[in-house]
Amino acid sequence: MGSSTPESMLDVARRAMDIEIEGLKAVREQLDGGFSEALDAMAACTGRVVITGVGKSGLVGRKIAATLSSTGTPSFFLHPVEGAHGDMGMIRDEDVVLAISNSGNTDEVNAIIPTLKSLGATVIALTGGADSLMAELADITILAHVPREACPIGLAPTSSTTAHLVVGDALAVCLMERKKFTQKDFKRFHPGGSLGQRLSLCVEELMHEEDLPVVRSGATLAGALSRLHEGGLGLVAVLGDSDRLLGVLTDGDVRRIVVSGVYDADAPVDDVMTSSPRSVTVGESSAHVLDLMEASQITVLPVVREDGILAGLVHLHDLLGKGKLKFSQV
């Protein structure tokens, strides 16, 4: 048994990385007209770029498909076994298929290539086997042969899968250049990323702070309704001394008052407001506030300081990017 001290394991890790770097350097030198032809076919594709492979190559293929789709090249992963059992119906003659196999002799993948071609799709082989059956069957071949695997027994796909993943990234980057794919385009395909950034902010970075719809304790219901209408947020805050939040009057409250038949324009708003209303505190995350609003079916919330003084109001649309701050327009 070899030594398994932390120092020896670091040596093993570095050796594995060195072998994979060696493999990437070899594949970089192998880039030739096959890569360029594949890039031309993918750039001219009016359908989808379909990725296929099994085992570790299949996992790499799923990542490549995801990268292509998120960078402006419509793509999906097709498992070759499922393809042989009916999923080939998803293939159109305007599609381009990228088939991945390190050996190039993976039976499950090679078995469907003739059918893919008969359906009119262009087939690109990404393989380490220059003389393999896959290279022979495909229309275009990208050679990605690594000198050795990082696996100490030479069996587990390591350097080869890294190389294929990097070739996929290289294709995606080149396609972005060819299509002049911009940051604005990227945001179109990543709304969740924009929302995630927004929800990582503190609530005070998204709340309304100026010209808030507020009235003082003792104001008439008619006066409160006027501010409610002018504010456009569906809520008016009722403040006491030192701007401390005492209550709120919402659109829903007004409907209940009218339906109950107890509307009195001259009555103090204090008599009909919701006292000790639900609120959030400055410093809370927007994600937490959104969870609270969804759970309680609330569209607008007061934001208060630790001492209960009103700091602002936050609307659901502010959290989702439809209010004061907006998603990028396209």
UniProtKB/TrEMBL annotation:
<dbReference type="InterPro" id="IPR035474">
    <property type="entry name" value="SIS_Kpsf"/>
</dbReference>
<protein>
    <submittedName>
        <fullName>KpsF/GutQ family sugar-phosphate isomerase</fullName>
    </submittedName>
</protein>
<feature type="binding site">
    <location>
        <position position="79"/>
    </location>
    <ligand>
        <name>Zn(2+)</name>
    </ligand>
</feature>
<dbReference type="GO" id="GO:0097367">
    <property type="term" value="F:carbohydrate derivative binding"/>
</dbReference>
<feature type="site" description="Catalytically relevant">
    <location>
        <position position="108"/>
    </location>
</feature>
<dbReference type="InterPro" id="IPR046342">
    <property type="entry name" value="CBS_dom_sf"/>
</dbReference>
<dbReference type="InterPro" id="IPR046348">
    <property type="entry name" value="SIS_dom_sf"/>
</dbReference>
<feature type="domain" description="CBS">
    <location>
        <begin position="207"/>
        <end position="265"/>
    </location>
</feature>
<dbReference type="GO" id="GO:0005975">
    <property type="term" value="P:carbohydrate metabolic process"/>
</dbReference>
<dbReference type="InterPro" id="IPR000644">
    <property type="entry name" value="CBS_dom"/>
</dbReference>
<keyword id="KW-0677">Repeat</keyword>
<feature type="site" description="Catalytically relevant">
    <location>
        <position position="56"/>
    </location>
</feature>
<dbReference type="GO" id="GO:0019146">
    <property type="term" value="F:arabinose-5-phosphate isomerase activity"/>
</dbReference>
<dbReference type="GO" id="GO:1901135">
    <property type="term" value="P:carbohydrate derivative metabolic process"/>
</dbReference>
<comment type="similarity">
    <text>Belongs to the SIS family. GutQ/KpsF subfamily.</text>
</comment>
<dbReference type="GO" id="GO:0046872">
    <property type="term" value="F:metal ion binding"/>
</dbReference>
<dbReference type="Pfam" id="PF01380">
    <property type="entry name" value="SIS"/>
</dbReference>
<dbReference type="InterPro" id="IPR004800">
    <property type="entry name" value="KdsD/KpsF-type"/>
</dbReference>
<feature type="domain" description="CBS">
    <location>
        <begin position="273"/>
        <end position="330"/>
    </location>
</feature>
<keyword id="KW-0129">CBS domain</keyword>
<keyword id="KW-0862">Zinc</keyword>
<dbReference type="Pfam" id="PF00571">
    <property type="entry name" value="CBS"/>
</dbReference>
<dbReference type="InterPro" id="IPR050986">
    <property type="entry name" value="GutQ/KpsF_isomerases"/>
</dbReference>
<feature type="domain" description="SIS">
    <location>
        <begin position="38"/>
        <end position="181"/>
    </location>
</feature>
<feature type="site" description="Catalytically relevant">
    <location>
        <position position="149"/>
    </location>
</feature>
<keyword id="KW-0479">Metal-binding</keyword>
<dbReference type="InterPro" id="IPR001347">
    <property type="entry name" value="SIS_dom"/>
</dbReference>
<keyword id="KW-0413">Isomerase</keyword>
<feature type="site" description="Catalytically relevant">
    <location>
        <position position="190"/>
    </location>
</feature>
